[in-house]
Amino acid sequence: MSPRLSTVILPVHRWHEGGRDRWQHAEELGFHTAYTYDHLSWRTFRDGPWFGALPTLTAAATATERMRLGTLVTSPNFRHPVTLAKELISLDDISGGRITLGIGAGGNGFDATALGQEAWTPRERADRFAEFVPLLDRLLTEDAVTEHGTHYTAEEARNIPGCVQRPRLPFAVAATGPRGLKLAARHGQAWVTTGDPKLYENGTPEESRAALRAQNEKLTAACAEIGRDAAALDRILLTGFTPDRNGPLQSVEAFVDFAGRHAELGFTEIVLHSPIPDSVFDVDPKVFERIVTEAPAQLA
Predict the structure, then answer these.
(1) SS3 283
(2) Surface-to-core class of residue 244, CB atoms within 10 Å of its CB (0-12 exposed, 13-18 middle, 19+ buried)
(3) What is the spatial distance between Cα 298 and Cα 192, in angstroms, rounded to a whole number?
């Protein structure tokens, strides 16, 4: 089966100055899902325009009709499960049940300290994530939830009528470590990876694919531990962070080769960043559109 193609549209454009057009054009191109980053700001874009993910997705939901929408990814860095759940059921309702929640443990970037806290250690992030995901799962599937955890508390939190999608909107869990992969196996409808970050600077595409294969095998093992069919989880590759970088987006042929090799590893969805001039995602828009419209037939 050929992988679905999806895109990330970074929230860097005012809605009435090109923002809406980008989401509508993504639907016209036939993308399966259009995601956006759920950050307060991000890396080289920190000193420029950057809008909120959930309001942007709400606007996108009213400007599109068929394409799925989602975050890639939301994290506990500045989110709380109780308030996030309320916003998600509202967004799922407005979109008519087209929302996927990409969710991860977060990192040590700008989000990690923007609220005035010290950046959490990797262990602290994993601890919070392990509590955040199950609580959010309950909040999105139960009418009323009370829970007192180490990091998060819910006191008779109401979420009526719940999600349009039943039993809740799907989770796409970003993970590479053992604890995160167990969360993906138990709570995810999909798993997300960007590859092995240690290979980005000096690794090779072959080493990257080997690392992705190993991650995939660990996910399969995590599913087996709880008796879940690993084939029931979609596998999503967010591109741009492997040693290939933007190479696959230089031509239709290069992308077909890249996508085919990763489909062989079991990936069911490949996500491309929508072009942004003068950034790390600066690729030829015409080539990008040719890839989106021509590559699927060649991958079938």
Answers:
(1) coil
(2) buried
(3) 24
* pLDDT of 42 strictly over 90: yes
**Are the C-beta atoms of residues 271 and 235 closer than 8 Å to each other?**
no
Q: Which residues of 48-84 are buried (b: 16+ CB within 10 A; e: fewer)?
A: eebeebbebbbbbbeebeebbbbbbbbbbbbbebbeb
Cα–Cα distance measured from residue 47 to residue 165, given in angstroms and rounded to the nearest whole number: 37
Q: For residue range 185-226, list pLDDT tens digits in order.
A: 999 999 999 999 999 999 999 999 999 999 999 999 999 999
- Length of the chain, please? 300
Q: Please compute the mean of the pLDDT values over residues 43-52 and round it to a whole number.
A: 96
Rounded to whole angstroms, how far apart are CA atoms 77 and 129?
10
CA atoms within 13 A on the CB side of 205: 13
Task: Report H helices in 64-177.
Answer: 81-95, 122-141
Taking the whole predicted model, whether its pTM rises above 0.85 is answered as yes
User: What burial letters (b/e) apply to 14-38, b meaning 16+ CB within 10 Å?
Assistant: ebeeebbebbbbbbebebbbbbbbb
Beta-bridged to residue 101, according to DSSP, are: 71, 171
Question: Six-digit token pair at 281?
Answer: 């995602």
Q: Could you give the CA distance from residue 300 to residue 293 in angstroms, rounded to a whole number?
A: 13
Q: Are strands 190-193 and 153-158 parallel, antiparallel or unpaired?
A: unpaired
Q: Is residue 78's pLDDT more than 90? A: yes
Take residue 51 and report the two structure tokens written for it: 């809008």
Task: Give me the residue label for tokens 């690993």.
Answer: 230
Are the CB atoms for 297 and 251 separated by under 8 Å? no
Residue 201 tokens, joined: 């600077």
Task: Name the residue type at position 8.
Answer: V
Residues 41/234/92/105 CA torsion (nearest 10 deg): -40
